[in-house]
Amino acid sequence: MTFSIRKFGLSVLLGACLMGHAAFAQDFPTKPVRLVVGFPPGGLADIMARILAEKLPAVWGQPVVVENRPGASGVIAADLVAKANPDGHTLLLILTNHVVIAAVRPKLPFDPLTDFAPVSQVGSSPLILLANPKLPANTLPELIALAKTKPGVLTYSTPGDGSVHHLQQELLNAAVGVKMVHVPYVGGAPAMLDAISGVVDLNVGSPAQGIQQVEAGKLKALSYTGEKRSALLPNVPTVAEAAVPGFYAALWGGVLAPGRTPTALVARINADIRQVMSQPDVRGKMTKLGTDVVTSSPEDFDKFIRAELGKWSGVAKQAGVKGD
What we know:
The model has no long low-confidence stretch (mean pLDDT 91). A 6-stranded mixed sheet has the order 2-1-3-10-4-11, sandwiched between helices. A 5-stranded mixed sheet has the order 7-6-8-5-9, with helices on both faces. It is built from 12 helices and 11 strands. It has helices at residues 2-27, 44-60, 75-82, 97-104, 140-149, 164-176, 188-197, 207-215, 239-242, 263-277, 280-288, 298-319; strands at residues 33-37, 64-68, 90-95, 116-126, 128-131, 155-158, 181-184, 202-205, 220-224, 250-258, 292-293. The chain folds into 2 domains: 32-124 and 250-319, D-Maltodextrin-Binding Protein, domain 2; 128-242, 3-Layer(aba) Sandwich (D-Maltodextrin-Binding Protein, domain 2), CATH 3.40.190.10. It is α/β, with parallel strands linked by helices. Helix 6 links the parallel strand 6 and strand 7 (181-184).
């Protein structure tokens, strides 16, 4: 009898907690929401965040404030959100670097999986392999053939050592059996400029950054890492078409909440983000960035993040890429 009463009491308590979380989710937000970005203004993460910050107030009835906290490849911003109150009022806009940095750095001030609650992916921007016009290769197969005759001679630039740009090229190099020299830069702009000037042979960049250079004849596009061709560069084959079936890599973006955020609240924020990202004008803005709108359930985003972490950890280990 005593056991049954206790069991009944626990059931009532659990039900009350669940009802409390659901009511809290319905009342959210009760004040301005901070959307933290680990990069300076003007980049892909910042632009995605500002699209959300423009649209979500109409749904929430509260301002959404983009807070740029650049530094340590996004680690500073992620650490801030990991330790924030899990009430939905502090969120994090991440890029692929969230898992890449965990793949190359053994010690972080947070766990990239358990200290966050995945909310939704918001976009995916595959990468493009660009070449100086003087390089005697106009397609990916021609580049592979050239690289095999000159192992360790051809150079490629990226926005940084251990970036997804770096790891995806190492993944491609390993898949086709070539050796090229990585030249890391601090940021995508200087990396692309040195490919234009011929300081390096190749550059791994984004379509949004590279398309103007391609159209001006300052660079030539050899391949695209998406599952399908880019609408901005329809004549450029994917890596999967040209050389490695199934190959895919992208600079994707998504939203995380602190790890202890109630499930009902995560679901509420997820639904609202997916609603605004489905709007035609938002899709138009993203397309101009060379970015596809991609949203997901919290559960699917969690699975995606874990798969990406496993993928890039394997690439980093195989290529011997280590962070500080």
